[in-house]
């Protein structure tokens, strides 16, 4: 078992009731699960997202914590949250990372693998 090992899983959802495709507005929710699979307790400090829409326009989002929180995860603990983004295209990709600080003072990064945002009935 590694000392610093954060596993991030993502589930996406298209929010049709908030979207207006005729105005190029596509709203997506993403449900995140962050699990500390390492042996060292660690706290999430910052986030960094790279959001690319179907026209290859890139938006970067950096900030402190997630949804106003700074989860402090013991070994085996998980934190779940939901957030969202608005795209001008029906399809896009998100990826990024979380920066953590372990209780022993070590800073490390947890990568978030690319995931697709896709409105129904769209080719991706």
How is this structure best described in words?
With 124 residues, the chain is mainly beta. It is 0% helix and 60% strand. The protein contains no helices and eight strands. Strands 3, 4, 5, 7 and 8 form a five-stranded antiparallel sheet that branches. It has a three-stranded antiparallel sheet with strand order 1-2-6, with no helix packed on it. A hairpin with a 4-residue loop joins strand 7 (91-102) and strand 8 (107-118). The protein is elongated. The protein starts with 5 loop residues before the first strand and ends in a 6-residue tail after the last strand. The mean pLDDT is 96.
Q: How many H/I helices?
A: 0
Number of strands: 8
Work out the helicity level.
Answer: under 10%
What general outline do the C-alpha atoms trace?
elongated
Strand content: over 45%
Briefly note the structural class of the backbone.
mainly beta
Key words describing this protein structure:
3-stranded antiparallel sheet, single chain
What topology emerges from the helices and strands here?
Elements: E1 6-14, E2 26-36, E3 42-53, E4 58-64, E5 72-73, E6 78-87, E7 91-102, E8 107-118
Antiparallel strand pairs: 1-2, 2-6, 3-4, 3-5, 3-7, 7-8
Short description:
The model has no long low-confidence stretch (mean pLDDT 96). The chain is elongated and about 50 Å long.
């Amino acid at each position: 078992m590694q000392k610093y090992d954060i596993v991030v899983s993502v589930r996406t959802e298209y929010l049709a009731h908030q979207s207006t495709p005729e105005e190029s507005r596509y709203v997506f929710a993403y449900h995140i699960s962050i699990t500390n699979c390492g042996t060292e307790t660690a706290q999430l400090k910052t986030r960094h997202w790279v959001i690319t829409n179907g026209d290859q326009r890139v938006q970067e989002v950096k900030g402190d914590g997630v949804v106003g929180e700074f989860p402090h995860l013991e070994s085996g603990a998980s934190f779940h949250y939901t957030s969202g983004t608005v795209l001008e295209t029906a399809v896009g990709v998100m990826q990024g990372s979380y920066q953590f600080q372990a209780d022993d003072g070590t800073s490390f990064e947890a990568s978030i693998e690319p995931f697709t945002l896709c409105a129904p009935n769209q080719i991706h």
